[in-house]
Write a structure and sequence with these properties.
Blueprint: E1 3-8, H1 22-41, H2 45-51, E2 54-55, E3 58-65, E4 74-84, E5 88-97, E6 100-110, E7 112-113, H3 124-140
Antiparallel strand pairs: 1-4, 2-7, 3-6, 4-5, 5-6
């Protein structure tokens, strides 16, 4: 089952033509990932970054933009886990507005030690959660 959340397109997201300037989508996508970790996994970014001194930087991202989004649109983001590796997580995130696809993003996050920048194995509690979400995601498709 995907993690679902919404974002309203604000003035700050738009270029002079009144449509979302594509780098702003990446800010929205990152905020969706942050919400997923906080609300679904139970590890908010403060806990990861400040308390544990770990992080989940994006190692790969590939995005298809299907249609423009405009100021005032409400975008629904659906994040689905595609694969769980020893140190990585592969995600598929789709954004749509009123059923119309706006973007599809495939990304890979890596769990790292912030001091060294080196990959770390996922903690057992997070791995169990990801495995459950990944199985549910594959059943939904």
């Amino acid at each position: 089952m995907p993690f679902v959340t919404q974002r309203k397109v604000r003035f700050q997201h738009c270029d002079p033509a009144g449509i979302v300037f594509y780098p702003r989508y990446y800010e929205m996508l990152n905020s969706v990932v942050e919400d997923y970790f906080a609300e679904s996994v139970g590890h908010d970014f403060n806990r990861l970054h400040v308390e544990s001194r770990t992080g989940v930087p994006t190692a790969h991202i590939e995005t298809d933009f299907h249609a423009p989004s405009r100021l005032g649109d409400t975008l629904t983001f659906e994040l689905t886990l595609r694969d769980v590796g020893r140190t990585s997580l592969t995600l598929r995130t789709v954004a749509h507005c009123n059923g119309e696809p706006r973007l599809t993003c495939h990304s890979t996050l890596v769990f790292v030690d912030l001091a060294s920048g080196r990959p770390l194995p996922w903690p057992d509690d997070m791995r169990r959660h990801f495995a459950k979400d990944c199985q549910q995601g594959s059943q939904d498709e």
